[in-house]
Design a protein that fits this description.
Layout: E1 2-10, H1 12-16, H2 20-32, E2 36-42, E3 49-55, H3 58-72, E4 74-81, H4 84-91
Antiparallel strand pairs: 1-3, 1-4, 2-3
Length: 92
C-alpha cells in the first residue's frame, strides 16, 4: 500500500454539511475505493483538513478523492508520500 496525504478545502456549501455522519461517509468512501485511513486532522490555514491514508495505487486514491468531492463538495489536493528513511535509501 502507498501512503497519501489528502488536503481538503471546504467550499461554502461544504461548511453547511459538517457533521460526524459525513465523516463516517468519507471514511466509507475511502474504504470502498480500497483505502485505509491512518488519521484525519482539522487544520487552520490554507487547508481545512488532512487525511493520511493508504491505497493500493494512484487510480484508487483518485477514485476516492472524486467520490468524496462529489458527496461533500470538499475539494482535495492529493499528494503521494514516503518516509524520510525510504527517501534516504532512494537518494543514497
Amino acid at each position: 500500500m502507498a501512503k497519501f496525504l489528502m488536503l481538503g478545502k471546504y467550499s461554502s456549501e461544504a461548511v453547511k454539511g459538517i457533521s460526524g455522519d459525513r465523516t463516517k461517509k468519507v471514511v466509507g468512501a475511502i474504504e470502498k475505493a480500497g483505502g485505509k485511513v491512518d488519521s484525519m486532522y482539522a487544520l487552520l490555514g490554507a487547508y481545512d483538513l488532512v487525511f493520511i491514508v493508504d491505497f493500493p495505487g494512484m487510480k484508487d486514491v483518485i477514485k476516492a478523492s472524486i467520490a468524496i468531492t462529489r458527496a461533500t463538495d470538499i475539494g482535495f489536493s492529493t499528494l503521494p508520500a514516503i518516509t524520510v528513511e525510504e527517501f534516504d535509501k532512494i537518494t543514497a
